[in-house]
Amino acid sequence: MKYNNKSAALRRQVSTSTIIALAVAAMTCVGGVDPMPAAAQSVPAASDGSATCAAVGTRSGTSSSTNVTYAAYAGGGSSDALNVAQVADNCHVYAGGKISTAVPVAARKIGAATTDKSTGVLTLAWPQNGQIVAAVRFGNAINDAQLRRSNGDIVVASDAGLAVLSSDLATTRWRQDGNFTRAAVGTDGTVAGLYGSGGKQLAVYSAGGTAIFSRTFTDSMVNDVAVFTGATAADTRVIVTGMAQRDGGGCTKLQVAWIRAYNLKNELVWKSYDWTHAQAFARSSSCADTRGYRVEVGLDGKLYFAGEAAGGNSIYRFGSADLQAAAPNVTSDAYNNPYNTRSNHITYFTRLDPLTGAQSAGSFLLARLTNGSGNTIRPRAITADQSGAVYVGGISAAHIQNRPNIVLNGKKLQVYTGGDPWLLILSPDLRQRRLWIALADGGQGEVQAIGVGGGAVAVATRADKKDVNGFALYTTPGAATTYSGTKAGHLTVIPSN
Predict the structure, then answer these.
(1) 448 phi, psi to nearest 5 deg
(2) pLDDT at residue 52, as a whole number
(3) Is 235 exposed, middle or buried (0-12, 13-18, 19+ CB in 10 A)?
(4) What pTM was computed for the model?
């Protein structure tokens, strides 16, 4: 549902509107409680979860069709987007990003630099209709957020800082000033954030906000961070992914994905990929560029990695810690077997043990042109539910599997027009595609985040382009069918069961 304060009709729609954004800050610790707006006091209790999750419904359909509980736009402007989607155990949904239009409830401001016009917004809403019950503003962009499952708190990364908030968004537990790009939290409350230029600085904090350690990376890209809480403090892992440029040798130029895991003493415990140029070239001329984009500890306690390769001859064909071993990759058809593909960027994801880095399963993912050639598909989000079912999303060129026949709530989507935002749900063994859909319905966009919990899946997307009629992404009946400006956030909620 579009947020806009210019139209009475849209103001009426906004009362059942979408979920929006978070923003946070980086280097000066501030404790205490910011007063909660009266309009946000009716946050449902966790005990309401069974009824709320029941309202999401049960998924029905095929691998290319599904019922959708809620889908609507948020915001609309020159650079609006949703970057956050989290689902609490009681199925209430958090969404956040950059929202330049009005928010339908009073939004608590976090940090002295945040004003009523700041566009970094995080919202809490009902999953069945998107009705917002609480919101905060934090800087001008909420870049990332993650729920702490053990107590319901949520850690938020914003261009204004890093903050830990209570589940109802009423209280700021602590915050740090700075430009944070990514954030993660373990079940024990350990928080990690990437900040600074390119997100190349890592800061790790205790549950109370005390600094534990920091480190600066010199790699070409540092893209994400995850936190795993082990049986003891010695088993806690802070896991980072990115890309190193390693030129000179048989491949000439080479980008190499890496995953590195640190303990709370800032010691490297294990790493995956991160090969030298010479090592990659020596193993079957693995000269396809690779990048690590996302790491996340799923609800099953396993670590999930999503990256990309510029072609099929990549290091992902081999073990993440042993180039001489074959990777445990699932291969079943043209969409997960990287043949007949050149240097187009394709997705790779894998499951690892966060404690040791041991790899247990993986898969490539390709789009295919009508002539059978491999085509670009890039990942931007990955997570897993309690059973180990895997959820991946991003942006795809033509075409994901069965693209002409995708049906949402009985509506056949319009044909591919470029830049499909996509969602894939896989069985725990990665062998069954339970659902693989695009969300574009006439336009273009890119999935930015996926949240799961309590039987619901929430997908945060950036709408990038509308068709001549103003249509871009699928929306449920009653939601606005278009948005103002060139870009908008978009939230989709579907049943996961």
Answers:
(1) -110, -30
(2) 80
(3) middle
(4) 0.92
The pLDDT tens digits of the residues spanning 384-413 come to 999 999 999 999 999 999 999 999 999 999
315, with CB counted inside 10 A (0-12, 13-18, 19+), is buried
Give pLDDT, residue 51: 75
- What is the amino acid identity at position 3? Y
Distance CA 293, CA 305 (A): 8
Report how far residue 381's alpha carbon sits from residue 365's, in angstroms, rounded to the nearest whole number.
Answer: 14
> Dihedral of CA 300/357/428/223: which sign?
positive
SS3 471: coil
- Distance in angstroms (rounded) separating the CA atoms of residues 381 and 83: 10
Sheet holding 290-297, edge to edge: 290-297, 303-310, 345-352, 359-365
Cβ neighbours of residue 7 under 8 Å, at least 6 residues apart? Answer: none
> What pLDDT, on the 0 to 100 scale, is given for residue 49?
62
Q: Are 94 and 84 in contact (CB under 8 A)?
A: yes
Secondary structure (DSSP) of 364-387: EE-EE-TTS-EE-EEEEEEEE-TT
Q: What are 414's two structure tokens?
A: 């319009």
Spans of the chain below 50 pLDDT? 1-41, 45-48
Helix (H, G, I), strand (E, B) or coil at 328: coil
